[in-house]
Specification:
seven-stranded mixed beta sheet; 27% helix; 201 residues; Rossmann fold; 9 strands; 7 helices
């Protein structure tokens, strides 16, 4: 949960390249990452229980390194972010808070929530609401998080992953025959186009 393998200078590079809009961080602990993201000049929605790892989402096997209660912050969210008025804490389990915010969209997303179930919920909720082409994570070394990411990637071939922290949306491919844009996976199975004819009526 504390910022580890992700270099904070990458956040600025990707956020600067993102379209206008808000940042979302999923998993905040003591708010250090959210405070850094807040300096980039955008609204930051900080999603967390602010009470540590939730027991309801914990799986004893694959999430064993992050037991319930771990990462409980040292202060309430209003105190963590009192110097950053552009940070908006969203307090609660993702399964409870995400369904209430269906209209919210993001320009950039950073995921740092450790557990399989937490990752699964965030990937299914946040990425379809992402207007940018990049998002990042910090927990691919955690067993549960890795499984959730791997499962999601198999279902979403339009995204690539660098194996560490950065997800990038694949460019769309123009299909001139059907006058549509396709993902690379769709383009691979598109019907072949007939060769140009030299015949004149």
């Amino acid at each position: 949960m504390p910022a580890g393998p992700v270099a904070t200078h990458d956040w600025k590079r990707y956020v600067d390249a993102a379209p206008p809009g808000a940042i979302a961080e999923f998993g905040c602990f003591d708010g250090g990452s959210a405070r850094i993201l807040a300096t980039l000049g955008r609204p930051v929605f900080a999603f967390d229980t602010f009470d540590g790892i939730p027991a309801a989402d914990f799986r004893a096997g694959e999430d064993a390194e992050n037991p319930p209660g771990k990462f409980r912050p040292s202060a309430p969210p209003w105190r963590l972010f009192e110097q950053h008025p552009n940070v908006y804490p969203v307090v609660g389990r993702y399964a409870e808070t995400l369904p209430t915010l269906a209209g919210l969209r993001f320009a950039f997303v950073y995921i740092d929530c450790d557990l399989y179930e937490s990752y699964r919920q965030v990937l299914e909720y946040a990425v379809p609401r992402l207007d940018g082409d990049v998002f990042m994570c910090d927990d691919y070394g955690c067993t549960g998080a890795k499984r959730a990411v791997d499962e999601w990637l198999r279902q979403h071939p339009e995204w690539t992953f660098d194996g560490r922290s950065v997800f990038t949306r694949r460019p769309l491919v123009l299909c001139s025959k059907c006058k549509a844009t396709l993902t690379p996976a769709e383009a691979a199975v598109a019907p072949p186009q007939p060769p140009a004819s030299n015949h004149r009526a």
